[in-house]
Amino acid sequence: MKLDYEVLPLHPKHRFAIARGGHEKDHAVIVRLTDQDGMAGWGEADPVPYYGETPETVCAALEAYRRAIESAASPFDLQEIEAACERDLRRHASARAAVTAALYDLIGKRLEVPVYKLLGLDPSRAPLTSYTIGIDEPDIVRRKVREAAEYPILKIKVGTDWDEELLDIVREEAPDVRIRVDANTAWHPRLAVRRILQLEKFDLEFVEQPVAAHDIEGLHFVRAHSPLPILADESCLNANDIPRLAGAVDGINIKMAKCGGPAEALRMIHTAKAHNLQVMLGCMLETSLGIAAAAQLAPLVDYADLDGAALLAEDPFEGLSIAHGRVQLSTEPGLGVTRR
């Protein structure tokens, strides 16, 4: 197989901000693996500096993986390719996610089936996705909620001194919508409990990552005192993190860019279920290519937050859409998306 990649700028419709900061521009690295017959599989890396990755580190990692990829006889050697990449350069999850997704895309195309069918899954069983409202000025939040009118579930980024004002606006504009909140590590444990008790009146579904990623005891404390379910995001990167989170949270958020792609995401789903944890599939700011890789697994999970492409001003890939919160996958082989 031949490896090619390119760095692609991504522009959100609005400046995207969470408790740790915001940005008006992001980057993805698009990977293409071409087999000996000229058939191509596509994957997407969405590096996040919080996890120590940038477009530059992704490109460097892909060069480190090149030998393992280009010496492989077939995309069906996925397990061996994944193991060889891990041996050549550990971590770098978003780079590995792009490679693994491209292999699944190529395998599906070779077998002429969508990846979800390859896995024996039914897309109609996938949960509805939420739509994320980033931290912003009250009038801009109001505009964002109005733009998201078709979505039955909203995820609101919190961690400010004006969280109640923002949620008042959300409830005023969308009184019947299901609301989840995500603090992105903004609070210490006792403050988290106070904030959750203050926000409970807004009829919230759950709270995501209220405390620092390393603070597992803090998660235990918050869960013990919270009237709402607690989900871990930054605290849970891969399957190895799940056993220590059992009892500290009610569920986990899996993202391709954190875990290394669909193969590890499958391991995480089964590990979480074995520990009686609920599972959400999430995303970064991504194109439809990145979202499609995660959405193939959505029938296996409890919650979805797969709105990354919907937040973009322009999506360079097509074949996936969202209607009233329902992610609609293509019936085309592989991941089912193509470059515009």
Architecture (CATH level 2) name of the largest domain: Alpha-Beta Barrel
Oligomer: single chain
CA distance, first residue to last residue? 24 Å
The CATH topology of the largest domain corresponds to: TIM Barrel
Low confidence ranges: none
The CATH class of the largest domain is Alpha Beta
Instruction: Write the H/E string, N to C.
Output: EEEEEHHHHEHEHEHEHEHEHHEHEEEEE
Q: What form results from the Cα inertia axes?
A: globular
Proportion of residues in β-strands: 15-25%
Which percent bin holds the helix content?
A: 25-40%
Our count of helices gives 12
CATH superfamily of the largest domain: Enolase-like C-terminal domain
> Radius of gyration, Cα only, in angstroms?
19 Å
Major sheet size, sense and barrel closure:
8 strands, parallel
Descriptive account of the structure:
It is a single chain. The chain is an alpha/beta fold and 340 residues long. The protein folds into 2 domains: 2-113, Enolase-like, domain 1 (2-Layer Sandwich), CATH 3.30.390; 118-339, Alpha-Beta Barrel (TIM Barrel), CATH 3.20.20.120. The chain is 36% helix and 21% strand. It is built from 12 helices and 17 strands. The chain has helices at residues 55-70, 78-88, 93-111, 115-118, 138-147, 163-173, 189-199, 216-225, 242-245, 256-259, 262-274, 288-295, and strands at residues 2-10, 16-18, 21-23, 26-34, 40-45, 131-133, 153-157, 178-182, 204-208, 230-232, 251-254, 278-281, 303-304, 317-318, 321-323, 326-328, 338-339. It has an 8-stranded parallel sheet with strand order 6-7-8-9-10-11-12-13. It has a 3-stranded antiparallel sheet with strand order 1-4-5. Helix 5 (138-147) links the parallel strand 6 (131-133) and strand 7. The longest helix has 19 residues, at 93-111. The mean pLDDT is 96.
